Amino acid sequence: MELELEEGPTGQVCEKCGRMCEPLEMDTCPVCKRGFCLYCAHRFGARNYCSRGCGEYFFFGADDESESGAEQE
Ligand SMILES: [Zn+2]
Ligand SMILES: [Zn+2]
Question: How many CB atoms lie within 10 A of CB 59?
Fold first, then answer.
């Protein structure tokens, strides 16, 4: 019995906890595009992210080390 895990049509596996979830329980991180389940979701604003880091990344942007006080585009 071989367990070749190809991308099957049914169900998705949370990449955080490895749990097999129904599509409705799954969400996709807008930052890293990983799939995660509701139980692993970190909520930032109105969206869910796979991790706190991704949420902060999306929220505060990909700012580099230099912190300039001025807010500019
Ligand atoms: Zn999970
Ligand atoms: Zn993420």
Answer: 12
What is the three-class DSSP state of 52? helix
Higher pLDDT, 31 or 71: 31
Would you give the distance in Å from CA 72 to the centre of its chain? 27
pLDDT for position 65: 55
pTM comes to: 0.66
**If you average pLDDT over every residue of the chain, what do you get?**
81
Interatomic CA distance for residues 62 and 51, integer angstroms = 15
Q: List residues, by chain if needed, whose CB lies under 5 Å from ion ligand 1.
A: 14, 16-17, 37, 40
How far apart, in whole angstroms, are the C-alpha atoms of residue 7 and residue 13?
10
